[in-house]
## 1
Amino acid sequence: MIIKNDKNIVVPDYLNEAFFVCALEEGLRDIKIVIREVEFAWGSKPGENYCSSIYRCTVTYDCCGEYPVQGQKLHLIVKAIPVISETEFLEDVGVFIKEKLVYSDVLPRLEVLSKNDKFGAKFFYTTKSPLPIIVFNDLKTEGYQLASRQKGLDWHHSSLVLKQLAKFHATSMVLLKKDPCIAKRFTKGMLCEETILKSDTFFHMFGGYLNQLIKTSATWPGYENINTKLQKYYNNFKEITYKLAKPKEGDRFSVINHGDLWSTNFMFGYDDELEATRPTRLIFVDFQLTIHGSPAIDINFFLNTSVQLDVLKTRRQELIEVYYKVLVENLEYLRYEPIPTFEDLQYELRSRELYGFFGLFGFLPMVTMPEDLSNDASIEAFTNEEYKARKLADAFSREQLQNYMKFGLKRYADLGVLDEF
């Protein structure tokens, strides 16, 4: 096997010929594959992914089975999840098994039920040795690309995300009715006892963001009362945060949530030659934190981490209406009953506003962080107090982030959300 590594990235020993033979034989359902060449590149920029190592691989191979062909090419993404002490809590949530289940079982079933919608990449292969690894096709070769996380999403990108999310949620509701047991596989998401109460890593990172928001907002005239309430949250961070995704008495309806819906976890396709910057299709990636629960888990998290501020200020309600319209259309197509009312959706969104607030203080600062600040960011790095203090001070000094925070905090204060700690 010839290895091409023009970018001189660090390629681990386990990504060898035997690995790619197994991946292709399983993914292509072929009994004999010969690997000729593998070309490696990084699958994500530094600071774009905090829990995984992602490799982009172009594989040249021969099929030597019943129908032999030579010189075929495949473009693959290899996602490895290193197990280190700082991310050990992810094992307790079952991120690897969960993502494998989504790609190998849930997504194919959703796509069969839907109007031929494609929600995720094609799954090829997975292994737990020498560490958890999952392989799927490279969506970039199908014309998909990431939008800028620093700029945030405009109306066209944001509305397309919510349209596709509504299709995903609606189809999942039908699947849950057909197979209720599947909900038991997705009870633990980003915020749960395993991530928050049983590990200090989560608090080191996300409590650090909240603490920096408290320090920064203390300098803003008119935010004194809000600052006091933020301090109350920080003083009780673990006790409050682990409950945010839990089912509540009075919940109106539930779905399978993506669970980590921010701007690096969906990709856009652009097919309109007359409007080259307007997206026409969207696909989701990274299903490690998929969770069964209120649809507001996805919606509120997305709105608080990925949408441009001017869109939030002027068209937030319109985005909710776009989501609901598509949700209803797909539930009607699938003959699902009873269809939730718009008031049901509004109830869910209000009941999970604190989940959105977690997205605002815990994710928006790193989502919007410029590349020169984020290129060395990782969960492991955030356990270093000196590093964390310097990085957070730099992040919160930016006017763009402060404007987001000021708007979001005033909105939450007006809704009474900050009185719920």
## 2
Amino acid sequence: MSDSTSRFAQPRVLLAATAATAALVTAGSILGGQAIRRRLRTRELKRQVEADLAGQEWADTTAIGKVNGIEGTEEGGMSPRAPMYAEAGADKVWAPGEYDEELIREQLSRNYTFLGEEGMRKVRDSYVVVVGCGGVGSWCALMLLRSGVSKILLIDFDLTTLSSLNRHAAATLEDVGTPKVEATRRFLKKIAPWAQIETRVGLWRKGTESEGWLEGADWVVDAIDNINTKIELLAHCYKSGLKVFSSMGAGAKCDPTRVQIADISNTYEDALARNVRIRLRRQGIHSGIPVVYSTEVPGEVKLLPLPDDEFERGKVNELGAFDDFRVRILPVLGPLPCIFGLHAATYLLMDLAGKPLEFPLPVKNRRKTYDRLDRDLVARETRLSDDVHKAKRNPMSQDDIAYIFEDLHQGRSTIPPYPVLTKPSLVRWCKDEPLSPWNCVVMSDKEADRHTSEVLQGEKTGAEVWGEETERIVQKRARDARAVWEWRS
């Protein structure tokens, strides 16, 4: 660079550096001022709360406290820093002006990084109806409120029971015997006093006035346990142009890594989802309803037993709804309904903010892999047949292929040390038995060719070629597969 060019460049560099420094100083001043104001407002809010709590008298009114005769003393384990209200009806009622609504809203819904200011405005202005206020619905409503939604309608006919306490987001012992929607409403109002939380204690039914409860909703959440009512609600919303998100079965599930969101047409292994798909198709609805479900295949979990007098009252050999709503009860691991509800709330929030999750990634999203496994298996079976010019028919569906590969063999080779294969193949294990999910294993191409040559076309057994440990694993997984098929049927 010449001296003249260098002389002209230096002032421009200095000017740019000065501008950048000034911009940083200005931004820092603005952000610093905002942070200081936020801290001052937070401090003032805490001061107001402490002042309101200072004059309150507290007592332990829980069932445990009453049984043991504990009156909130330190000997009874009650701490002044963790007080309880003297009676259930003495909850603090906040009046307008007693709290900084703007600050609380900001702290409750710190989603600006994801949703942006305009997105949060849309969330605040939205209206959501939650039908079914049990484990799934209550958690969904709670997180919608905490994330900024301030108009929610809760619909449920059911009462809070002791069994609700292992999964409900809001219910306490004091709520047992009261409507679930009221227990949820009281809890939500403690978090956001300004929120419009309405309730309907009743059952949603097609063709009744309850259809009007959904009018104006930006989203409807279906968290209903009853299959008939669920189908009616989903079909009504779909045909009426209402956005509806549905929760499938959280009962008898325990693996949180299998919970996912997908269109109803793209669900696997969920018995309730399968039933919903079939019944919606009868009404001409094949897709367009997002759901949260689990791909987990239930294990040894069974329906909880019913008392003898229930058998005397009528048919009880199925999981379903009755006129008096007697149902067989599936065991529920508390966190799973919560996880389902949080999935639903997250999906709705993104859509309400104008940033929808348009293509949620299914866990089983390897359709090309399943297609190739299917084609290779059919080609191998055809070569083993008497007529090589006529392709053998695979008795297993692509969903069966996915189950064999993903669930039964965990996407790995059946041969120890069970490596993850870059190009897996499916092959029949025992030549004297027909091809089935319990007579099919995963191998590499070379291993499959060897197995075909020495076992399916030769005189050796799988145990002789691959060892007793492999034989033991194959037989165990065959039993697992048979159990799943019995459960499906």
## 3
Amino acid sequence: MNLLCVLLGGFIGGSLRYGFTRLIPAPYCTFVANILGSLALGLAYGFTQLADVPLLHPFLALGLAGGLSTWSTLAKELGEMIKRKQWWRLCKYLFWTIGLGIVLAWRGTIWAARIYHGV
């Protein structure tokens, strides 16, 4: 059953990421996908700490967040910025991706508690 949850979450996450590539130009689509993946991971961690729902973690953390986020595309885009010597753009992109990703993962744990407790 865990495998099915991971597959379903991965399908949804991958489909969302594909949709972002059709709606948002690169590298912004990668940024949005990674940020939302961080949020999904934070929510998954928060919910698994509070609720005894064993299939939620494989679905949200492994499937959805894993299928949505894309570190390989981030690395490719950063490599292209290095080749073009776009140092300022590279620094901003990396800073905001990692910084906002950490903040949203942290906030996701807090929002999960608020959702769980109905606050």
